[in-house]
Amino acid sequence: MSLDITNAQRAEVLTQALPYIQNYNGKILVVKYGGNAMINEELKQYVMEDIVLMHLIGVKVVLVHGGGPEITEMLNKVGKETKFVDGLRVTDKETAEIALMVLAGKINKGLVNLLEAKGGKAMGISGLDGRMIEAEVKDERLGYVGRITNVNVEPIIDLLEKGYIPVVSTVGCDKEGNVYNINADTAASYIAGAMEAESLIAMTDIAGILRDKDDPSSLIPVIDIEDAKQLFEEGVISGGMIPKVECCIEAINRGVKKVFIMDGRIPHSILIETLTDEGAGTMVVEKKVK
């Protein structure tokens, strides 16, 4: 998609972005990447371009990714049935090994390759590297689905200091070396908190928090933790949005300044959210400025 804009207009766009660039320069931005933006090839290109651009203007970007649909696809290929309990995948030892192969292998290295192709400098790591994500059994019924017990972000910090974009796959391990599948939203909130990130961007397949789930124009642009409690009670935050918002609150409670639930279906949504007034989703903060 090419736009016919003059050099003067180009310069104006960059000038308007300057205060936002200054605000983020040298700060940590964690992007949780999944959903449609990860499956749709065109959107994937936009996300990678956004991340490389942010990296090049001095933002310390950490990309945390999931990969549920790809795990399901691989399980189907090997003839293994996927079972879910309360919306979470039941993960036996073989499924955990397949999740590790898909997340830390195919998806992770594919994203690293794309970022490098866009002019970035990226390095892929998993939650097993440097025992970055330690976990234990979350629920006996789910098998090797992990609840995070500890996050060690030193490997991520080392990569940032050497000028890399760390690309993190969300698998974890326990003291005995068992491998666990970890929810990517939860992992991103823990990592962002441990790194005292300026922002966490949670990419999703909807516009953000909607007052009326069937009306995209009812988007709520900003909420704080008190608002969230109210919206839970009113049933405005429901279904799959409940765990997403819980992860946002977890991140805020762990020290992240602001969290964005963002519509990953919009091209260049990361740039729209971080470098313009417009925004592309719902921002969650500890307390709104009155």
Helix content: 40-55%
Instruction: Determine the structural class based on helices, strands and strand pairing.
Output: alpha/beta
Mean pLDDT: 90
Oligomer: single chain
> At the first level of CATH, what is the class?
Alpha Beta
Number of strands: 14
Per CATH, the superfamily is: Acetylglutamate kinase-like
Widest β-sheet, arrangement of strands: 5-8-2-1-11-13-14-12
- DSSP strand content: 15-25%
Coarse morphology: globular
Our count of helices gives 10
Q: For the terminal residues, how far apart are their CA atoms?
A: 40 Å
Question: What this model shows, in words?
Answer:
The chain has 290 residues and is α/β, with parallel strands linked by helices. The protein has a single domain, classed as Acetylglutamate kinase-like (Carbamate kinase), CATH 3.40.1160. Helices cover 42% and strands 22% of the residues. It has helices at 7-24, 36-39, 41-56, 68-77, 93-117, 154-161, 184-194, 225-234, 241-253, 269-275; strands at residues 28-33, 60-65, 84-85, 88-89, 122-126, 133-137, 146-151, 165-169, 171-173, 179-181, 199-204, 222-224, 258-263, 281-285.
